[in-house]
Amino acid sequence: MDLTGRFGAVFGVLDRLVAGPVAGVALAVAVGGEVIAERYAGEAAPRLPAGPSTLWPLASISKLYTAAASMALIERGEITLSTRVETVLPGFVGGGRERMTLRHLMTHTGGLIYESPRMAELMASRTPLDAMVDEAFAGDLLFPPGASQRYSDLGFALAGRVLATVAGMPLPDLVASLVLAPAGLEDTFMPPPRGLDGRIAHVTGGFAEGTDGAMYNSTYARDLAHPAFGTVASLRDLLAFGLLFAPGGPRSLFSRTGTAAMVTDQTGSDLPGEVVQPPTGVIHPWGVGFMIKGRSVYPELASPVSHGHAGASGCSLWIDPEADVVVAFVSNRHLNADPDEFFSRLDRVHNTVMAAL
Question: CA 42 → CA 54, 152, 246, distances in Å?
């Protein structure tokens, strides 16, 4: 595809971002399975130019790798989306928890809070992941499982414990063996091994910034390998992961039916025990980890059947099967740094890409 002039607006947006509040950005686009654009600008970290070898903290896009591990176990018959959490973790009871399933965790319909209101304090004090997950076992649910939807890092942290218990191995090992290795993702890590710190982008504005527990930037935080936000990857690997879920992408991970289940709505179950009452809140379409645009306003120019995920570190992976486009965008300015501008930045990048195509 001749990109002369067509991606001028896209690259102009990237240049304006790094001339303004964002230190570094990178963008890769594939159409029909072919990479047609790749661009890096600015600094990934002080004195580290953004480039192909940079490893970017993927924040909540990490949930897709945890979700992929769940599908690998589903296809092996070791668990189902309808498996109740308490059958794997017997202490997970009380307040309606007995009815919560893996499907609820994957679609954010379990009723768990987003994450501990003390998250910055927990990270600054370098709290172990197990202690963070234990918060899911206490307190009131926001709503009965299946009755509404509330985005939840804690839900995915709990899902990570469920998967690790079922598989009999730590979640990072599970992701590495069942997702990263089969997909050939050699520049994706959960967590990054020692020796790669000099390649990792520095994210401005995350929780516990300036402490030994700084989210994304500290050894402690990276070693957590948090199921909801603990993955780092190169831009090319992120795009390659997205291509696994594109119409003509390689089927190196799952069967076609498993891949389809990942990216189709899983929120409307009426299986016994999965919905304790008719929905009382707004529930957006959600696949196994994947957000489905549906009637959502993000991304603005993506089709309703498109799917993907954004990350609070300033990144987005989006697959639009209608146009057979995969867009991978990364940067290093956290949502908390300027929440009013965050999604506008992501939309400006995605809108100009779709318009150029």
Answer: 12, 32, 29
Residue 27: strand pairing partners = 39, 329
Tokens of 277: 């009452």
What is d(CA 91, CA 325) in angstroms, rounded to the nearest whole number? 44
**What confidence tens digit (pLDDT) does each residue in 147-190 have?**
999 999 999 999 999 999 999 999 999 999 999 999 999 999 99
Rounded distance between C-alpha atoms, residue 121 and residue 123, angstroms: 5
On the question of pLDDT at 97 being above 80, the answer is yes
Q: What is the pLDDT of residues 11-28, one digit of tens each?
A: 999 999 999 999 999 999
The token pair at 326 is 């995969």
Measure Cα distances from 331 to 90, 250, 281 in Å. 41, 27, 33
With helix as H, strand as E and coil as C, how does the chain read? CCCCCCCHHHHHHHHHHHHCCCCEEEEEEEECCEEEEEEEEEEEECCEECCCCCEEECHHHHHHHHHHHHHHHHHCCCCCCCCEHHHHCCCCCCCCHHHCEHHHHHHCCCCCCCCCCCHHHHHHCCCCHHHHHHHHHCCCCCCCCCCCCCCCHHHHHHHHHHHHHHHCCCHHHHHHHHHHHHHCCCCEECCCCCCCHHHECCCECCCCCCCCCCCCCCHHHHHHCCCCCCCEECHHHHHHHHHCCCCCCCCCCCCHHHHHHHCCCCCCCCCCCCCCCCCCCCCCCECCCCEECCCCCCCCCCCCCCEEEEECCCEEEEEECCCCEEEEEEECECHHHCHHHHHHHHHHHHHHHHHHC
Q: What is the pTM of this model?
A: 0.96
Return d(Cα 76, Cα 70) in angstroms, integer: 10
Read off the pLDDT of residues 124-147 as tens digits, 9 standing for 90 and up. Answer: 999 999 999 999 999 999 999 999
Residues counted in the chain: 357
Mode of pairing for the β-strands spanning 315-320 and 291-292: unpaired
Given a cut of 80, whether residue 2 has pLDDT beyond it is: no
Q: What is the CATH number of domain 8-356?
A: 3.40.710.10
